Amino acid sequence: MSDRPQPISPFDPAHPSEVGAFVSDQILGLVTTSGPPAHVTPLPLLAQLDAEGGVAEFFGHFGRSNPQIEALQADPRALVIFMGPHAYVPTAWVSPTGWAPTWNYALAYFEVEVRFDAGENDRALAELVETMEQGRWTPDRMGARYEPLAQRILAFRARVIRQVGKFKLGQDETPETFEKILQRLSPSPLAQLMRQTREGSDT
């Protein structure tokens, strides 16, 4: 058994690295500000991890025409939300009497402080492209078209102030019920995440 501190709920991540791995895999997050007016922007965000594998900050960029930039320049606090795979789990999939339907999902959100830096525009694009393309394509292949497009973005870093993760992935189910649900959901990203989380909690 692990000597890690036990979470309060079976759905709470047992270690910050679980949240770090989750958002590094999801990449697309929702950057939200309350306003008025409220803004929500879906953005690819690169998680910058600390020594324990937890999320220290995010690195990304906005399109310069996005009005959320002005909102964040006035108040740099924002909420970043990552919603992973999810699915409704009906009673027809399991057999125990008294078992109720449920919803399995993975969620993480972060209170952050945003700092803009146009000097990092090229780096923001290069790191995102490398993460997604893994060397298959590079921005220099755009030729003269790259510079005008790069001027239309604004890079930022979002320092994490607080984070919350909730992975409701069948941790409280019996092995038999869990396997029945998994069979119905496989193959899917949710089934894979359920299996990984279950195996991780047993180590």
Please supply descriptive tags for the structure shown above.
seven-stranded antiparallel sheet; 34% strand; single chain; alpha+beta; Pnp Oxidase, Chain A; 203 residues
How far apart lie the N and C ends? Answer: 6 Å
Structural class: alpha+beta
| Strand tally | 7
CATH fold-level assignment = Pnp Oxidase, Chain A
> Which strand order spans the largest sheet, edge to edge or round the barrel?
2-1-5-6-7-4-3
Shape: elongated
Helix content: 25-40%
Mean pLDDT across every amino acid position: 94
List the helices and strands and how they pair.
Elements: H1 16-26, E1 28-33, E2 39-44, E3 46-49, E4 55-63, H2 68-74, E5 77-89, E6 102-116, H3 121-133, H4 146-150, E7 153-168, H5 175-185, H6 189-201
Antiparallel strand pairs: 1-2, 1-5, 3-4, 4-7, 5-6, 6-7
What does this structure look like?
The protein has six helices and seven strands, in the order αββββαββααβαα. The protein starts with 15 loop residues before the first helix and ends with a helix. It is elongated and about 65 Å long. The protein has a seven-stranded antiparallel sheet with strand order 2-1-5-6-7-4-3. By secondary structure, it is of the alpha+beta class. The protein has a single domain, classed as Electron Transport, Fmn-binding Protein, Chain A (Pnp Oxidase, Chain A). A hairpin with a 5-residue loop joins β1 and β2. The relative contact order is 0.19. The protein has helices at 16-26, 68-74, 121-133, 146-150, 175-185, 189-201, and strands spanning 28-33, 39-44, 46-49, 55-63, 77-89, 102-116, 153-168. The longest helix is centred in the middle third of the chain and has 13 residues, at 121-133.
